[in-house]
């Protein structure tokens, strides 16, 4: 597991709400990613989850009282945020958001938020009517103007039995937001279109041909681009992967469907990263019924060429800055350089497929007009962040 929060110290604040149960998993997942977590709870929060639970999960003392004598100078509202990398309030009730806007300091958590020396992130959690209420919406907008980052809320079933906006984001979503918060915003304001996964080409209603692809590299790049501040659209062939948090996903199956989906979006994008393992050919005539097995004679199939998505986008007038991908099994440098020139693109990412297929690690090289630039073998998410950095520097012209 990549330790995306290694060395980070987070103050996790819990205000009153049933969503406190999610905070138990959140604190454990933050620790799994390398963070140290100090938990601070309001009195209301202790009615939903105990300090004993949060202490057991965090492995550190839980703080409840502004007069906690365990802090040598008896000032936990000061000391807890000094040296912290962020304060995350999850859940943040409507009442607690109002306190933050008003600058109230009548308990330990509200006081340390006012006295903090680090960024503040807030995950609202409340009934849908409370979230939609004009005072809460005004408070949320004011917190944003004050530099507070609002995470969510989500939409769905609520403890009261109603459905709508106001749910606290799930622990995995909050974790993605927290990790993303610490990533450099190298693509802030950019729109990025990425293809990922395989395409599947039908032979008959039950049989297909396809390319091997887990989609992991494309999905990692989508997450890394979102972390870097981009608005990301992911056009994906069939995979078993979950959509990265914050990313808009469009599902397709065939190369033609992917081609049409890409062209429908490409003109409005700043960057296009073609990672998908698109089938080069499709069956010329797809059978309308299942082809029956003949033990003595396999079916004869004829093929036609699928459209070249990357080459088409690269030729668009005022189109996006294009990045290609080459998965080879031999002579990577030769074939990758040739493919970059043939496609007419400024950058191509290449690897030897047999070494990384379906794995969580990868070894890639960047190919551009200056030659080949190998990256060290690492986890796919770490490599994806390095690639997004390389793309950002080239798009901005800081590296040719």
**Coarse structural class:** alpha/beta
User: How many beta-strand elements?
Assistant: 22
CATH class of the largest domain: Alpha Beta
Give the overall silhouette.
elongated
Reading side by side through the largest sheet, how are the strands ordered? 13-12-9-14-17-18-20-21
- Beta-strand percentage range: 15-25%
Give me the number of helical elements: 14
* CATH homologous superfamily caption of the largest domain: CoaB-like
Runs in which pLDDT lies below 50 for 5 or more consecutive residues are: none
CATH architecture annotation name of the largest domain: 3-Layer(aba) Sandwich
Helix content: 25-40%
Main sheet properties? 8 strands, mixed
**What distance separates the N and C termini?**
34 Å
Mean pLDDT: 93
Radius of gyration: 25 Å
Domains counted in the coordinates: how many? 2
CATH topology of the largest domain, anyone?
Rossmann fold
